[in-house]
């Protein structure tokens, strides 16, 4: 049976309302948003080709305190702007019922970008970070199932450092996001 978020369509806020209401990380978020540049003409052309489509909707589970939201959602917003799609932003803490339907390795991780049809049937999801950047966390979770282990926190710290190394200093990681989003939409489009 396919997932549906029909009950959440149109219940969230706009990207502008999210940005304007940010109480944490707003300057950093806007820095990534304003610094976005398409690194792939193919990705840009693809997203622009979606303009005028009313059969693809996007809802995004997110929170302003999350570093992955601050880094990744500006890219998602820019891709969706090119596509003419205004996402339905769902604040995680206000939508825990929906969040719990989209867990990452058993945990609440944001952002989760949820593509649906007009009826709210889930077509695909993306998040919380690009696959390459997420790989260290996947490996960590497999290797460290016991949260009470003596080395758990040290291993988690090392994993987070590797994730930040993979993000890098500049905007290169943004091309991973636009490519993964394009491939996702192409898979059900």
How many beta-strand runs? 4
Low-confidence stretches: none
> Per DSSP, what share of the residues sits in E-state strands of 2 or more residues?
5-15%
Figure out the total of helices: 8
Q: What structural class do the secondary elements suggest?
A: alpha+beta
Percent range for helical residues? Answer: 40-55%
Largest sheet: 4 strands, mixed
Element string (H = helix, E = strand): HHHEHEHEEHHH
Give the overall shape, derived from the CA principal axes.
globular
Q: Order of strands in the sheet with the most strands?
A: 2-1-3-4
pLDDT averaged over residues: 95
Distance separating the two termini: 20 Å
Q: Rg from C-alpha positions?
A: 17 Å
Assembly form of the protein? single chain
What can you see in these coordinates?
It is a single chain. The protein has helices at 15-20, 26-34, 41-49, 67-83, 96-99, 131-143, 152-167, 173-188; strands at 57-62, 88-91, 112-116, 122-126. With 189 residues, the protein is of the alpha+beta class. The protein has a four-stranded mixed sheet with strand order 2-1-3-4, covered by helices on one side. The chain is globular, with a radius of gyration of 17 Å. The mean pLDDT is 95.
């Amino acid at each position: 049976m396919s997932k549906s978020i029909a009950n959440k369509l149109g219940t969230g806020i706009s990207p502008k309302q999210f940005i304007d209401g940010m109480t944490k990380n707003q300057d950093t978020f806007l820095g990534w948003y304003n610094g976005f540049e398409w690194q792939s003409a193919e990705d840009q052309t693809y997203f622009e080709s979606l303009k005028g489509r009313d059969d693809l909707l996007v809802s995004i589970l997110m929170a302003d305190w999350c570093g992955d939201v601050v880094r990744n959602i500006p890219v998602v917003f820019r891709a969706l702007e090119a596509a003419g799609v205004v996402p339905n932003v769902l604040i995680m803490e206000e939508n825990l019922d929906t969040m719990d339907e989209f867990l990452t390795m058993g945990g609440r991780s944001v952002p989760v970008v949820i593509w649906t049809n007009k009826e709210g049937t889930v077509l695909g999801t993306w998040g919380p970070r690009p696959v390459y950047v997420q790989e260290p966390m996947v490996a960590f979770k497999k290797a460290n199932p016991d949260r009470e282990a003596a080395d758990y926190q040290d291993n988690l710290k090392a994993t987070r450092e590797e994730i930040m190394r993979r993000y890098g200093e500049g905007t290169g990681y943004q091309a991973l996001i636009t490519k993964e989003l394009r491939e996702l939409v192409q898979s059900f489009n």
